[in-house]
Structure formats: C-alpha cells, structure tokens
C-alpha cells in the first residue's frame, strides 16, 4: 500500500505555527527557516525509509500491514 502524497509535505500551516520570536525575522529569514525545517524533515523521512530496508522481510510485511490498518483507522475517523 503506498501513499501518493508521501513525497510531498504540506507546509502551508507551518508559517502560522512558528514561535512569536519568528515574527521578528524578516520575510526572507522566515522563508529560509521554513525551508531549512522542510529539508530537515525530508532528510529524516529518508532515513526512516533506510531503516525499514534493513528489517527482515517478515517485519517489513508487518509494518506494511500496520500502515494499511492506520489508513483504515484514519479513513474511519474522518468519516465519523
């Protein structure tokens, strides 16, 4: 089971959730901060994938099934 949006991160609400101190930054500095955070998150996501590749096939299958369950729970919760 794959997620078509797994390679794209929605960072649209990140700007509004930055600490108050970030308001003192210029627009360019804030954009740089957001981009740095986005890059870091993407790097961490890539490392997570690398860790999964080191797991045995049985464990990887369990992870895949758990992800499918997670999608089902999310879908159910979004409906109810």
From TrEMBL:
Lineage top rank: taxon: Eukaryota
Q: Protein name, please? A: Nucleosome assembly 1 4-like
């Amino acid at each position: 089971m794959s997620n078509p949006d797994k390679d794209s991160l929605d960072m649209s609400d990140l700007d509004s959730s930055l600490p108050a101190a970030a308001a003192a930054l210029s627009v360019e500095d804030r954009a740089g901060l957001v981009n740095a955070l986005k890059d870091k998150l993407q790097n961490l996501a890539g490392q997570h994938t690398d860790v999964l590749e080191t797991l045995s096939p049985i464990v990887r299958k369990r992870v895949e099934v758990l992800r499918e369950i997670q999608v089902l729970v999310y879908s159910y919760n979004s409906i109810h």
